[in-house]
Every structure is written in structure tokens, then in C-alpha cells.
Write a structure and sequence with these properties.
With 143 residues, the chain is α+β, with helices and mostly antiparallel strands. The chain has a single domain, classed as Nuclear Transport Factor 2, Chain: A. The chain contains three helices and six strands, in the order ααββαββββ. It is globular. The termini are far apart. InterPro entries: NTF2-like_dom_sf (IPR032710).
Amino acid sequence: MPNRRESDVVKAELDELMRLFFNAFTNTDGPPRTDRIHEVFIPEGTIISQTGDRTVVYDLGSFIAPRQQILTDGTLAEFAEWEVGEQTQIYGSIAHRFSEYRKSGVQNGRRFEGGGHKTIQFVRTPAGWRISSIAWEDDDPTS
């Protein structure tokens, strides 16, 4: 079991991975940095969107490509997504985080705001901590 100081160091590393993940898609002050996704994930990472009973599973490439497109062609402007709450559990060389997030932007000329939840799994690799998977579900905009 890691001591308190070791846990604080690991938690800070995981916080930084999440900051880089969220900021990779921000285009409020320049182009998005979607290339950073490869820096924060293991190569075999998965990203899963859950909308009601619809589940879409992406590898890194199939997740990044369409987002890079809409974030740079004007479809999605002034976009930002940020974490507003989290619970992180660390167990040796694996960790889990449950995250609440908010987002805002202008899509197809219409301003929007929203949020949701993500569940994130991390693994400690020889290169340091990396994300192995993320699953997310946006809040229901009708509720």
C-alpha cells in the first residue's frame, strides 16, 4: 500500500492526464491538440460513448479523426470541456476515476452547454501512468 505522499504524487499525475485529455479538444484559444490523446493513452486504449441503450466503442484513431475535423472546420467552435468533480481510487499499478464534467461551445452556429460523467481506468506503464479506457455518458439535455 502506498504511503500518503506516494498517493499524492500518483494523484497529481492522474490529475495531469485528465487535464491534458480535456484540453486536447479545446479550441477556444487556438487549434485543438488532439495529438495529445496518443500521449495520455496506452496505444490499445478504448473510448466508449454510452447514449441511452446505444454503445459506441472507439479505438484512438476512430475517436480522434471526426473530432479533429469538426473542431477545425468551423462545425464546433469555442469548444471547451472541463472536469468539475472527481473521485479517484488508486490500487498499486491501476487506478479508477469517476469524473463529472461540463462543456460548452457553438455547434453549427448554436451556442450550447452541457455535461455528463466519465469513468476512466489508468495503468502504470514503464513510461508512467496512462489512460487505458474511458467511457462517458452526457447528461440528458431534456432533464
